[in-house]
Amino acid sequence: MKKIRIFLQTYIELSYQDFLSKKMPQRFRRYQEKRLKKHLNKVVPQSSFYSRFINYNGVINHREFPIMDKAVMMRAFDELNTKQISLKQAKEVALHAEENRDFAPKIGSVSVGLSSGTTGNQGVFLVSDEETIQWSAAMMKKAIDRRKFKGEKIVIAFFMRANNNLYETINQGKIQLHFFDLLKPVNEHLAQLEHLKPNVIVAQPSMLRMIADFYTSHRLDYPLKEVFSIAEVLEEVDRTYIENSLSCHLKEIYQATEGFLGISCHHGTLHLNEDIVFIEKEYLTDSSDRFVPIITDLYRTTQPLIRYRHTDILVERKTPCPCGSSFTALEKIEGREDDCFIFGTKASEVVVFPDFIRYAITRASDEIKQFQCIQQTAEQITVKLELSSEAEKQQIIQRVVQQVNELIPPEKQPMVHINVETGTWDYEQDKKMRRVISNVKRGG
C-alpha cells in the first residue's frame, strides 16, 4: 500500500504541475520555489556535507550553496549522501553487479549504479526504493501516452549498458520492460526483437541505427507506437535515417546520472522536467541561447543533488512550444562543454561549439552516412567519414576540409592539419557514441 501511495502521490503532483505550467505559468514558478525551499529544509540537515552551508541564522538559502561538479561530488560522496554509505562500499556493489550482470543487489533499501564514465570521471549514484517509485511515476506520466495503446499491453525493449532496480519499477500491470544488455552481440538483440515484437523501443541513436539498418532489409511486421532516443546526442543525420527506416516519429528522453532531466512532448519538442528538477541557466555568452544547466533535484534525498553543474550544452528554443508548456523548451542538446574545439592561447582563445562542427561536416555532402570529428591537439583534427557507395570520395573530403578549416581563426589555419579518414563505421556498442570530441582543454 505504501508503494501505491507514493506512486499515486507523485503522479498526481506531476499532473498538477503540468496543468499549472500550461495554464498558470507564473503560479507554477511560485509553486516550484516553494517546493525547492521545502525540499532543502528536509534534506540539507540530513547531509553532513550540505548542512555546513546552513547560515548562522539557521536559514537555508539556495543561492549560498556552492556549485557542484562530478569530481567534487565523488570526493564528498561519504559526507554528501544521507544513508552513511561509503564510496568504497557503493563501488564494490556496483562493480560486482557490472561484472556478474546481476543488478538486483542493494545496500539495504538503496540501489547503486555507475555512470558510463564518458566525461572522464565515472560517477556512482544511489537511489532509494521510494525514489525508484517516484521515478517510475514520472516515466509513466511523461513517456507513456496510454491513448496510443487503447488498453493493449505496453511492451518496452530497453537498451542499456547496465540494468538497475530503478528501471525494473516500470514493470507493473500491462507494462512489460525487457532489458537488452548492450554487451551482448547485436545479432542476439535483433533476433530477440523479432521474437518480442515490442511496441516501444528505448535505445541510444547508435543502437537505433543498427535496428534501422536491420529493418531496411527485413520487414518490420509489428507496430511501433513509440521510439525514444536516450544517452547520446541525437544528430539530425541519425534522426532522419531512423525515422525513415522505422516509419516512426523519434522522441528523446534526457536521462543522466544526475536524474530524469527532460523528455519530448507530443509535438516532438524536448522540454526540461522543471517539475522534477530546479534549473539555473549558465549562459555561455551574454547574447547566446546556449547554456549549461545547474541542477537541483527536487525528489532525491538519498544522494541530494543541489546546484550540480552539468557539462551538457543546451540550446534554448526561441519560440513557445505549441503544447503550451512553460517548461524550458530546447532546440537540441548540443553536446558537452568539454567537446568545444579550442584554438589559441588563454588570452586569445576562440571557442567553436560542437553544433558548428557538425553542420560544417554534414552540409559538405548528402552522401555522408556517419561521421566523427576529433580535435586531437591544438594543431591536429581528425575527421572520420562513412560514405555511401556512390559518393565521390575525394570531392567530399575536399569540401569537409574546406568547411572545417573555415571554423578555425584565419591566423591559426596554416598551423592546423585536418586529416580525413573514410571507411565502414565501427563502434563499441556498450559505449556512448560521441560525434564531436575535443582533447584540447580551455586555458591550455
UniProtKB/TrEMBL annotation:
Protein name: Adenylate-forming enzyme
Organism: Enterococcus termitis
Stored InterPro entries: ANL_N_sf, CapK_Type1_Caps_Biosynth, CHP02304_F390_synth-rel
